[in-house]
Each structure stands twice: as structure tokens, then as C-alpha cells.
Amino acid sequence: MKVGVIAYQGSFEEHAIQLKRAMSKLNLTGEVIAVKKPKDVDLIDGVVIPGGESTTIGIIAEKLGVLDEIKAKINAGLPVLGTCAGAIMLAKDVSDAKVGKKSQPLIGTMDIQVVRNYYGRQRESFETDLDFRVIGGGKARVVFIRAPIIKRTWNDATALISFENGIVMAEQKNMLATTFHPELSESTIVHEYFLSKIKK
Amino acid sequence: MRLYDLSFYEIEKFFYKLAELKDIISDTGLLSISPSIPQTLPAQGTVMAKHAFPIFQKGGVIMDVTNVTQAEIAENAGAVAVMVLDKLPYDVRKSGGVARMADPKIIEEVMNSITIPVMAKVRIGHYYEARVLEALGVDMIDESEVLTPADEEHHINKWEFKVPFVNGARNLGEALRRIYEGASMIRTKGEAGTGNVSEAVKHMKIMNYEISTLISLPEEDRLKKAREYQVPYQLVELVVKLKRLPIVNFAAGGIATPADAALMMWLGSDGIFVGSGIFKSQDPDQRAKAVVLAAANWEDPEIVLEAQKMISENKSMMGIDIKTLKPEELLQVRGV
Questions:
Q1: pTM assigned to the model
Q2: Contact A125 B53 (CB under 8 A)
Q3: Domain-located, residue A200
Q4: Domain range for residue A3?
Q5: ipTM of the complex in this document
């Protein structure tokens, strides 16, 4: 299998390492490739949209014609994992906790409402333990950096994991979104779960 | 995509050990001010949260701004963060006098108008400018040689803060000392406000050379190096294992064009700071967009070419040849 990581900006290297760790845990043979051009999108069986700045990733991906390409592929069933900025990119409804609605290029394929910078600024970034039983894992420590929150889901989008008053991981068919950073965690459970979606 | 042998979690475990070491030292009274970050869950301001933040800046461009209008231009161009200053480095150089942190009112205005992270600079060793910015809630503090140093001998002990710090460095020793003091991100010092990339290139090459030399040394000589750099041996070992700095390293100082940005990425930097280069040019909107495009796509000369075509060389800022600066006019030598 070939898994692509959108690699303009953000935690793309960390996702690549984590995907490789997850592959070796599951005894899968596969490759991780950087996605930067429309032609890269044709090569992959699944795609990760990393954490970073969603405005930056959106602006560059749109400029290079990758945004539309990915959107069409996701609509056709390409498995996708969006973390933090990636979750923002996937959401149909995005606003900022302080600044409100701002226009930015998005993929917008997932029936989730996301609020950017929900917990506040970097000072309010935190780490905590989450329970991953619902996807076959145990407790694992994860980090939330200037994290968004998933306020609600509709249609067949469902909440997988909640924390305090919001959803931090959601799923809809081929799409997975997390507001925390599984790529910086010791546990590879989220990436293992994502790879299992590609296998199907 | 560059891949390393260690995951973020493994690097992080090491930094927790370093932070514990700092705690032990301060508990024994060797440091005057002792850090106390409560570790209940969910935990804010942890080493993990501080080191994670710069990871999400990688591949991006951080732009110096002096007001809301400039900050909005930066955000719309795709900057990953802005650095709020009172004066751009070019103007600091021209105006002389003591350069201090920016007006908190302006920083606050910028924070309320854009969604990307907002950073600000403090003078080297100025704990209280840093405390003020932490209280204000900026996302990252730059302890910067571009401002006039407040302490000629010491840098801030950054383990004490919940807000992550970025520090400048010209070589591996400087970088490791700042990391040991708790910096979460390093940037090359370059020579700010000159529009001349040569010093940033020099510093990045020195860093690369010193890292590759370190890797080739036998263990006993690495011990010696750790003493020379005045850092724990474990930190030197971590660099050897990773074959790079253990935290995010950006290029800064003199970057003025998309090709400059791509050059610094090619030399191994994780991202770019652009100071005077954008808002001292005559085409800031286009130039900001072009530099962002080039930094993210540095492996592809055709895209860098496209970015370079978006700007016009006769609108670039007038550069200053480093050789024409007097030794006392150099900013990079402040705070080693």
C-alpha cells in the first residue's frame, strides 16, 4: 500500500514516522510518500492531512491544484486522516473561537462543525490521557496544540472519542478527523486504525 | 520528506529528563528562581506542549509585522505565524538607540484580528518583558539579538515559562546552550535587517558541518565537545543519534526573495523567518505569497521559479553588504 502525506507544511515528517511504526506493528508492507503535486494524488491508497496551519496548507494546495484533486478522490472513497489543521480542512463548517468566520481554502467533505483555536492560544495547549477503547486501543497520552474542537456531527458522521465538552475524534465512512496529534504520541493506535480502513 | 530515526515521543522523553535535571538543580538552590509547573491532567505549559508547537510551524514562513494591516497581509499570503515588532530590523539598524519589546496594545490588536499564531520579541535576558508577553498570551517568545540585550551575560531560563521560546544561534554550541536553557526552537542569527542572506547561509553551513563532525568523533572526544559547548553529554548524544538538532531549526536574517527562502530550506532549515524582506520591499503582498510558495516547495525548482516570477527584483529591498558594516553594527554577535 502507498500512503500519502500532504507535505507542504506542518507535522508531515512525524506522520510519516508514525505511519511506518504502525505498518511494522501490523506487519504491513507499504510506502509513505510526500504529496505535493496533483500527480502524486494518483499514486496513493490513503492520505494524511497533517497538523500545521490550515490557512497555509489550504492556500498552497489550492494554488498547486492539489486541493480539488484530493477533494474528488475523497468523495470517491479515498481513506483520509486529518489531524488538527487536517480536521479543519475536512470540515464543512469552520469558524474561529475569537475571530469568527474567515474565508480560507478547505476540502470540506466531512459533515462536522469545527471551531478553530477552541481552547485558546498556545498557553492553553495541553496534554492529557484519552481512552482509545472504541478503536481497539487502551489509554494513551496525546497533545492538543492550539487545538480546534468538533462541535457537532450530522448525517452519517459520528463521534468516536469525546473529551470534556467536545468531540476530539470523529469518523464518516472513509474519513477520520482528530483535533489532537496522534503523530506525536507514543501510541500508534490512531494510525493503525487508519491503515485498517485502507486495507478494507 | 526527511525522515529521522527517532519519533517525537522518544525525543520528548529525553527533554523531560533534561527538565527534571533543571528541577533538581533548582531544588538544591543552585538556580535563584525555581520553576513550578503543576503536572495534573490535562496539563498546560508542559515540555511536550512547548516542543510540539514549533513542529506545526515547519515548512512555513514566519513574517515580521508592525501593525494589523501587515499581519492581515501575512495571514492572507499563507504565513504560519507573525512576529510583532515595534520596528522592522532594517529600521532598528537605521534608528539606533535602545530597541525594546513591541507595544502590548499593538500585539493585542494583532492577536484579535488574525487566526494564525502571534509571536513577539524580548530583549536577551529580560525576564520581565517575557513575563509581560506570557501574561498577554503570545504564542511564542523570541529572545532576540535584534533588540538591545538587557543582560550581557545570561539568557532567560526558559524552563520557567509556559510559553515556548525561540532563540538565535550561529553554531552548534550556541544552539545547544539555548536548548539546554529550555528553548523550544532555534533560528540562525543571520544578519537581520540587511536583505543579505550570506550570514544565514554561513551559520547554517557551520551548524551542518559541526553536526557531521560530531557524529564522526569517538565517544571520548564527544565528551570533550560537550564540555566545550557547556551542555550535558546526553544532549550531544541526542544530536549524534538524530543527525540534526533535536528541535525545530528555522533560517533567519537577510532572507528577501523566494529563492533565498528555498536556498535556506535546501541547506536543511525547517522553515523561514522573514524580517524586513517583505515589508521593506515595494511589493509586499505578492512577495509574501511568493516566499510562502517557495519555502513549502523548495525541492522543486520549477515552483521556486514560478514564485520568483511573482516578484520583481527592482522592487526588492535595498540590501546592505555585510562588509560595509562596522563590527559594532553587527547584531548577530549579541548573546552567545
A1: 0.94
A2: yes
A3: no
A4: 1-195
A5: 0.95
